Amino acid sequence: MKNEKEMSDAGKTDAVEKASKGERTKKAAKSKGKGLGISWKILIMSIGCMIISLVVSMLVSTNTSSEKLVQNGKDNLTSLAVSKGNSLEDFIVAQKTLVGSVARSEDVKNICRKYAKDGAADSGLQEALNEHLAQINTDSGNLYENFFVTGGSEIIAASLGADSLGHDIGEEELYSDCVTNGFRYGHAVSPGTGSPTYEIAYAIYDDDGTFLGVADASIDLGAMSEQIINDDKYDVKLFTPDGVVIASPDAEAILTFDMKEVDAEGWEDTISTGTGNADFIDPYTGELGYTGFFVSENFVTEVTVMDSTFDGARNELRFKAIMVMVIAAIVASVIIILLSRSIVRPLKKASNTITKLISDIEAGNGDLRTRIEVRSRDEIGMISANVNKFIDTLQGIMDIMGSNSGRLSSISSNVRDSVIATEDEINNVSSTMEQMSASSEETSASLIKVAEDINVAVGLVEQVHDEAKNQSEASEKMTAKVEKISADAIAERNRSDEEAGIFVDQLEESIKKAGAADRIMDLTGDILNIAAQTNLLALNASIEAARAGEAGKGFAVVAEEIRQLADNSKETANNIQEISGGVVDSVRDLSDKANIIADKLKESNQSGRESIENLAQAYREDISVMAESMDKFEDSTNRMADAMEDIREAVDAVSIAAEETAKGITNITQSTSDIAGSMSTINAEANDNLSISGELQEEVSKFKY
Fold it and tell me: Does 591 score more than 70 pLDDT?
């Protein structure tokens, strides 16, 4: 009943688990329709990664291009500054050549000679020279603030005409330099306009080296910058080597902005470097700007551009980068869609095949012969091939399970039947063990009684032995008395008769006590009966031990020992009976002889003292025979005592063996009970195994293989 209940509970538990499994399967099936498909995931992930990479690359490339644009702009600024600075220096050299040619002109010398000689210039030559200087200024694009020639220190011809004539420059620095050095180059400020100029002056010498005057050209740096170095794209500034602005689009900075005052150390670095570019922050607007500079002999040329100038180029770069990114994104999206379809299509086919297989399995009609079609050797093809290998392996496993589940069910059923039969046998063995235990207790009680009887028999034997010993001593005394009677037969007749009567009485009493040997025969008979019963009990124990199998092996050994002990007891009892028979025969013979002696004594008393010597002689012979019989009787009693002692020891050993047998039977009974409990457990496990094999067959039946 317990096993049936456990199987019922197990069945209910399995039903609950199957129901729970079914619910989980339904939930899993419902969850399959949720979320995005793998194609959308691949598409979104790929496009996201592409957009991120494109944006990052656009930002990096745009910033890199912007930085490269700025760096190229800086390099261009430096190149432009060098180019414009060299142009200025070339222009200054050309102007020096021009002014020098005027100072060396014969016409100019003639005018100066005339002025030196007469104190006045030739009007015709003077007019012609004014026109020539004015034409030079016109041809140069009015670059000169003034171009004049002096006679001595007085201006006698000028590009500005009458406004400059007659002006004395004797106090000016340029005149003293020309007188002293023969020339003067350098920056100056026009006394008339206050504008910065570059002054070139040469001394006019006569052929003999006499100082005649000065030819001077004051170049208007503003006009020169506008014509030579100004640029529509860049802000070009000219500085003196001392750091003062002498030409700039910002008119307010001219002659007012001094770099040494703003950044003396930076200006010294610029002068020492000679050429290069630098970043700066406009002190008025705070805007970032870049400048390329070139330090030449007479000027420091700076070409400046503000960072905002590159905004247009930057925006154009960004626009182009965005357009490229959009086009690349479109092209990449198309490629990704095509690739994702090529990836997802076989995946969908594999997924549909697997989904159908799972649905068939859930419906109990799983076909393991289904395979996924493999069309490529890429990772998807490898996955499909591996899934097919898995299904192949599963098919083989199901084949083995299908063939073995029936065997498992049959084996489980056989095991359960064997366990039930074994439980019955164990119960029978347990009952037999209980009977044997009761028999062992009875045997032990019988052995105790036998031991008590043996002790009584030993006491009787000892008593007979003592009487035999006393009788032997009495026989010796009787022999002595007979000798004395023989010597004093006549004189002691009466006394002899009396003593003979006493002797006869004692002899009869001794013979009567010697009759206790018959009791020994009875006791040995009891011992033989007990030995027979013990032997029968040992035989039954051996039979039951053989039925018990391995559990009864130890008990079989004990039963064999009991049987051997019973055989030994039987043999010893037979020996005792044999000895006791001899003793009884001796006692009976002694009794017969004693009766004969008594009769003879009586006859002797009746006949009177006839043949007393013959009687004495016969009496001595009879006494001798009786003494010999008593010696044999004593020896027999000694042997009987030893045999009884052996029997008692054997009985004690049998008693101990019986106790051990009882303990062994108790242990066997307990072991049998434990085995019965184990068999119950095995039976329960066998039932579970049978149930599992049934479930396994049910699951395997869902597949086709």
Answer: no
